[in-house]
Fold each of these.
Amino acid sequence: MDHILEIAVEAAHEAGDIMKKMRSTFTKEIKKDGTPVTDADKACSKAIREMILGAFPDHGYLCEESGFVKGTSELWWATDPIDGTSSYINGEKTAVVSIAMLNGSEIELGIIYNPFTDEFYAGAKGMETRLNGTLIHTNHETELSGAVVNFQISDTHLDDIIGLYKLSADDKIGKLVSLKGSTAYAFSQIADGSQSVYIAHSRRPANAWDICAGIYFVRSVGGIVTDWKGKDIVSPFEVDNLVVSANQDVHEQALSAIADILR
């Protein structure tokens, strides 16, 4: 696993360098699904794919920008070269490189790299999860009324957003924030203890390249990842909504609080 992680770290750094170099020179277009893509996305995608498949040609490989390559091994990768492309285009600092490796359905490695804040999250099976080399852990807040809750909910679900603000106004949530941009980066904020709960409901369902690395980090440090009904996320494909929490206590309170307001 050491060598696999080493290659993944190198690939993430290479993609991060490309993101920074192309920040002011990229061109963009709109994909068939209506979402933006830049030539920086494509350059990062090419760099990660060539580095990983060059080192492990038998592995499967799934990338948002280049589709799926079936391998002969049970090991396969789920990568998003720039998770948070809209934020990248807007000049925000919430776009990251997201890389995960799975063994069948089990996530065994995760990397999330934010080159603009110099935050590098890395972990793998049998190894401890770290941020810039330092061990991380979720925070210890067990009461939703004292928790920092981050949400990413599409404006097509305005009633859900209003419902959360009502909970905050009633002091049932300690602090309500909305950190736009990368889904993977939002997961990392739970894993490193910056926030207690993350609630998501996007216009389009999340997929493996969006959430696998984040799921790995949160669960590796004792956090919880389910849908709004409390069902574990088993398959990382077409995930419509999420609740991600630092611990079981605050997770159960979050599920109870949103049960009547989120649809």
Amino acid sequence: MPRHRLDLWALLDVYRCTFEVLHEAALQWPFAVAAEAARWSRA
């Protein structure tokens, strides 16, 4: 039987996990782009 009351803490936990993933991606992508550019320039 599903609960009708919104579980605010579970929702906040989902948002927190999503934010952490996006934050990690934002920190990582410049290095990934730079590595890819270096690989293309050497080809």
Amino acid sequence: MTVLAEGQPAATGRRLISIGLPIVLFAVAAAVPSFVNPYVLEIGILLLMYAYLGSSWDILGGWAGQVSFGHAAFFGIGAYVSALLWINMGLSPWFGMIVGALIASAFGTLVAFATFRARLRGHYFALAMFAVAQMLMALFVNLKEVGGVTIGGSEGLQLPYMGTDPANMVFDGRVPFYYILLAMLAVVVGTIKLISVSRFGAYLQAICNDEDAAEALGVNVFGCKVAAMAISAFFTGAIGAVYGQIYLYIEPGIVFSSVYSIQGLLCAVVGGSGTVWGPVIGALILTPLAEISKTFFRDLSGVDLMIFGAVLVIFVRFIPQGLMGLVLGYAGLRRKAPA
């Protein structure tokens, strides 16, 4: 009884921190647009987008341990579905975002069935996902029109601008998009938090640690991996739709580019894959780093990619658990030390 009594305040404190700290962080983030100039706000939008991409990717790549190099496929599907529904049918991008996310999720489920039934793992699965994204890019580059519906081909699609119209996700300025992305990040992080304390999350962690052992213990490995892919693809498709509204232009060479696959992966790996806040931490580090490198090496194209490559190698080699994983591991050792 004494042990329980002594442990209760600490447990209560940890619960308060786990609930209160995210609220404080999101409140601080919500206040940012009031104190920054347009350039910093633009960086903030990119940061939130990459944090969201990293969190979406991490559901499959971190929690389930299925590293993907092709999440741009879902990003591009979400962008194109929303844009085509708006341009050709006049449907609001708010609706298009949901439809795009659902179609991306359905496509991800089909890909999951094909790849996981073939028992693709590790780098074979990663390369298969990369190939899927590249095939979609090639398809949309060569599709100019289908059944009277303009696809755009290699020139892409220019989304219409007819003045400020919040009902169609068109705003006067960038601030509303910042808050949309912040809200979306809160949703995906909240979803990951729910996964982390659920039986489904425990199954995913078991699969990540040892897929064969998890299967031997009765875990439905195939079903869990398909579900992780569907959820991950859903969230990634949603952000693709918002991307189209932010820039009012989409092109297959951009939205299906490996850049959006690698950015999500990088944020998760650097921040700590398989953790609730790891991808957000990764985005907080990598986004300013990218802007600083572009500023100091503006005359040398591709330097930011070289720096990202070096960062990835360093973390994979020396800190594979990422920064958040390192902190959590250290905290775990500290908790065990008194015993």
